[in-house]
Amino acid sequence: MHHPGLVPTQQEPGLSIALTTDSLGLIDCMLSAITSQGWTLLVLEPLKRPRKVDDTLVLMQYTMKSKSI
Fold first, then answer.
1. Rg of the chain over CA atoms, in angstroms?
2. So which domain of life are we looking at (predicted)?
3. Which listed residue, of 9, 30, 58, 64, carries a Cα 20 to 30 Å from 45's Cα?
4. Would you kindly state where each structural domain of the chain is located, as residue ranges?
């Protein structure tokens, strides 16, 4: 993937892209975990839709996920 000839001219854009990719990857990972647990509705529209999971359970699971990361 890395081409030595392109590094000097695209150093800054490459860094920006790398940071953005890492951030999006982390967000995507978190969203995937949330979706797999069925929390999507709670996260996206907590007030508009009926809650599928008890709030306490969600907080416990979220805390555990945060600590594992």
1. 18
2. Bacteria
3. 64
4. 12-68
Length of the chain measured in residues: 69
pLDDT tens for each residue of the chain, 69 residues long: 555 544 444 445 544 555 555 666 666 666 666 555 555 444 444 455 455 555 666 666 666 666 654
- Token digits of residue 36: 């797999």
The burial of 49, by beta-carbon neighbours within 10 Å (0-12 exposed, 13-18 middle, 19 or more buried), is given as exposed
Place of tokens 């306490």: 56
pTM for the predicted model, two decimal places: 0.20
Contact indicator for 39, 58 with CB cutoff of 8 Å: yes
